[in-house]
What we know:
Layout: H1 4-14, E1 45-46, E2 55-56, H2 80-92, H3 94-115, E3 120-134, E4 140-160, H4 165-231, H5 237-271, E5 295-296, H6 301-307, H7 309-330, E6 335-349, E7 352-367, H8 375-441, H9 447-481, E8 498-500, E9 507-509, H10 526-544, E10 561-562, E11 572-573
Parallel strand pairs: 2-5
Antiparallel strand pairs: 1-2, 3-4, 4-6, 6-7, 8-9, 10-11
Helix pairs in contact: 2-4, 3-4, 4-5, 4-7, 4-9, 7-8, 8-9
Amino acid sequence: MALTLPFLLACLVGGCSVGPEYVRPEIALPESWEHLPESQRSRLVELAMGKNKIQVVDDPAHDGSLPENTQVWWEAFCDGDMKRLIARLIAANPDLHRARARIDEALAQRRTHTAAHWPHADFNARTDRGFGEFDSRGRVRASRPRSKEEFWQLDAGWELDLFGEHARKVEASDRQAQATIESWRDTLVFLIGEIGLYYIEMRVNEERARLAVEFAEAYRDVARITALKEERGAASRLEVEESEARLRRQEAFIPEYERLAAQARHQLARLLATSSRGLSKYLTRSGPVPTPPPTIYAGIPAEVMRARADIRAAEDRIAAQVARVGEATAQLYPKLRLSGAITFESLATGDVTSFVRRTIGGGAGLTKRIFHAGADKARVAEQDALLQQTIRQYESAVYQAMNEVNDALADLHYGYQRRESLDDAVLSSANASRRVRDAYRSGLVDISKLLRVVEEDFEIQTEHLFARNLLAKASVRLYKATGGGQLPLPPKETPINLVATEVPGDYRPLSVLFSLGADEKWTLHRRRMLAARKRATETRELLHGVERAPTLPNFRRQPLQKSKAYPFARAYFPQGD
């Protein structure tokens, strides 16, 4: 008892927390990605030679400056339709709105846990009046004199957080709320990438349909020439039927490609929460296959792991689960509760009032769970097992991210090599097809050779289109795999689109949503922008000790609003929907 009392007093004054403390997981990562030349891993590397090149920055000594348009990566495709579709997605997609509602839910849960940390008070009051009474025969008669009873009580209580149970609850809700925010960012990155992929798929199939129409015209010209030759006796009926069969077969490709293009449009309409007809106001009638940018910043693996929202969310879930282990551990220790009450109770009969109770009191209570058949320790073991599961989920997310980046880089690496070869093949096959058709008109070659050359020309051009499709989609997948084009994290500067979390020195990029400015409701009053700029400048000076903060860019198109319900992190959210 002599040792227990000072320990309880120390906990009462300073507070203490039991259970494990969160430590950021460490996973061994490679120094650079695959498919990069060994001699050029620390500088700009060229993944393909010749006129078609893509460069991936893989420089550990990079100064940390963001490449141009890296946050709004779709700008690099220079496609107005893609930009309109993404702006519409952010404004109308129901999955994004649902993810945003989950943030509000998580913040509300945090407030309930925070409230339990403080004292509480309750007020109870009642009044009873007597109007009648039963006589000996069971009949009701008015009571004389009438009676009145009044009661009210003010209760107050406070459970002291001696061993950090409530603090660990708040900590868990903090990190769970942050994980929910990261999940919203991950959803945004995923959906924007899906828009890019489906849009490319639609344009590719429209191009395939146009290519099929073009070659159908070529086969129609061959069939017409063959029919004229038959009339002059220079061709057989078999040659005419063969040319007609090739024509019909080529025409059959057209509805199939149009069907695939329509399915891609339907997927776009679903993501944009509109109908296929309503999608037309965001699209031009036809357009080319988007051309990927020649330079993409891929970063080093360690940078990508910090830039991906799904990995940050998995890390926050680990921290939340560590806090839950501490919360379960704290239940093994005593609980101290303080209570107090002010009570008033009176009974009035006619003009006579008697006071039953008029008291002010308080006290303290100590509770310690003694025997519950091992339930308390089992609860700790349960939370620890959940922690191990969460850690494994984090590791799985890291390896999945590495696989996605490597796959996208491999597609780009080999895709550019393949397309470079097909560039020359397309030119050669087009010239050969034209010459063989001229020779067929002159009777120098038979129809079998002509049809074979035209078919090979169509296949080569189709393969070239597939190569362009692969490169465009691989670029989008690389942007998604590297966190949505938000690399790198500046080491010494805090732009307005980065948020400082509760971990010192850890900066997390906000969503690309704030660079769009697609709707008037996302804009801020000038005074709010100036206040946000001042806060960001003060934060940089405080954290990095710079004498003069670098000038922030003009961010009129970065609509930010500080969340009043989220004081534990400098987080900014878009205005209400």
